Amino acid sequence: MSSITPDIPFIWVPDANVEQCSYCDVNFTMFNRKHHCRFCGKIFCYECLPFMQELSWSENGLQKCCMVCNEKIDVMKKNKNKNLILCLLPLTIMEKHVFLYVNKSWNKTASYIISVFKGIQYKLTYHRWTKIERLLINTHFNQFKSHSRLFIQSLKCLYGSNLNSLMKQQEYVTSCEDLYCDCFCSNTITIYDIIDLLSNKPLVMEYDTVLDYIIKAIEKIETDAISLFLPWFLSIGVNKACQIFILKALLPRCDNLNFVYKMYFECKLLFDTSYKEFYVSITQKILMNNKYSEEILKTERFVQAINSGVFKMQDKNVRMPYNPKVIVTNILNKKIKKIASFTQPIKVPMETNIGIINILIKKEDVRPDRLAVLMMYIMNQYDDFNFKPYSVFCVSQDEGWIEMLNNVETLYDIEKKNSIQNYILSKNPNKNIKELRRLFIKSCASNCILTYILGVGDRNLCNILVHDEGHLIHIDYSYLLGHDPKWQKVEMRITPGMVDMLGGMDSVEYQQLQILCTSMFKQVRKYSFFWSAFIHYLSNTKPAITKYYGKKIHIKTHIEQRLMLNSSSEQINMFIIDTVNKNSGSSLMSYISDTLFDARTSLDEYMFKLEM
Prior knowledge:
Elements: E1 35-36, E2 43-44, E3 51-54, E4 62-65, H1 67-78, H2 80-88, H3 104-119, H4 131-140, H5 148-157, H6 163-167, H7 176-179, H8 191-200, H9 208-219, H10 223-228, H11 230-234, H12 240-250, H13 257-269, H14 276-288, H15 293-307, E5 318-319, E6 327-331, E7 337-338, E8 346-352, E9 355-362, H16 367-379, E10 392-396, E11 399-403, E12 408-410, H17 411-417, H18 420-427, H19 433-454, E13 464-467, E14 472-474, H20 496-502, H21 508-525, H22 528-535, H23 537-540, H24 552-562, H25 569-582, H26 588-611
Antiparallel strand pairs: 1-2, 3-4, 5-6, 6-8, 7-8, 8-9, 9-11, 10-11, 12-13, 13-14
Helix pairs in contact: 2-3, 2-4, 5-8, 8-22, 9-12, 13-14, 19-21, 21-25
């Protein structure tokens, strides 16, 4: 019954996002103020919000609600018993459609139950489960095992109930069409589903049947895909069941060179937690029976020496900790230098089997940078996205390495002597401007979407690079979720030089950028359930990332606003295009910010030379 819309979870609409009443479209003014419906979260004028209702989740008495929600609440209260009966009836959801045609009262009951059922797959990590949803899922559980999204939602919802007995029920085969599955439904759970489940409800693995199911599911996933998400998988080792999962699902993959290195050094990072003994035991098991144990120990000594300031090879031919296929043969001591910036990281050039690599040694937490880079790898799997990810290695919660990219220049350096367009053309004399612009548009749009969704701050001209091939590359993700050291709030950074490279704001290429940003954003938004769990890593992980630890409400609000979870396709189109336009070219605030940054950079360089 496609005419019945899903009961989308409550999302609070920010005041700044709305200028008109959601019902009568009247403009808000100083006197015509904004008012929220406490049931749907939308914003209305005073005249369109005259109703008051008691809400089950609120202890503050009567709450304001709009006309649509008022009618919905009245129907829910009036048909409370019928709602419970229809939930509990052992019929398929399609068989319950019969009640639409009994009479008006049963029609409203059936419409409500079908609407709630349709909305189950759209609930995010932090949404509460209602009694009706729990009853529906419990009744229809045996139909969900071959439907990934509904099944994962069921496990999250029914944690604390009789999951073991439900898991043992014989499956009732039902088509996606009959369960209203969205386009992401699969007959087996994906890596996205597993991250969603374990980031939200890791303790669900206390049920033996669930643990066995997840282990069997993860056996079907490629090792490279699992290695990307090791920080999420390893950080859940909080109880015996989670630790069994790590031992049975992850440890057997340590015969893979790349995987064993990532797992070993991620466990080392987790030594500084209350579960140190468990992670120490994992590293011991890895070294005890692994053919790469000697190589790993050589790399560990190498990392310890570098971070102690000893830039000397103690062993020959040492594998890089973040990419063991790269083998370090020598450290170029004479070329080691401090970088003239606020944190003064050390640049260490190393000779390797693939050429000279420059490593930036930073005395700060680089896990936010790693999260952004992992996001690049994931987004590169979607249509049109074009990132050049770089390597980030976390040594501890206040130390890290970043592999510097070759053949790049900062926008700051380019604009001091040239333009982006002239720079790229000079590096690519055999390519035509249209081909170069096509590549530049894709990389520019990719970075716009990434920085917008993550809320990346401090987008100064030294944090944006241009590769010789024409790629645009953002670096330094120290400020996320809207945090910014400056007063200027920037959602995307499209400088006048970038606009010039596109041919100006009236060009076809600029319009292509707008269209591409919109389509890319919609691709990412489709996986909101995954990105919610992915970004919540910042507040959940241990050792804690000080800036973000425990700030779940802030992250929840950020995700809702940036992914526009309550917006229609048309609203998204308008908003993204408007955001691109608003952040393109030069503004007074960006001009002041860049001028002050230029002055500060010159002063820092001068002071740095005096210190040297």
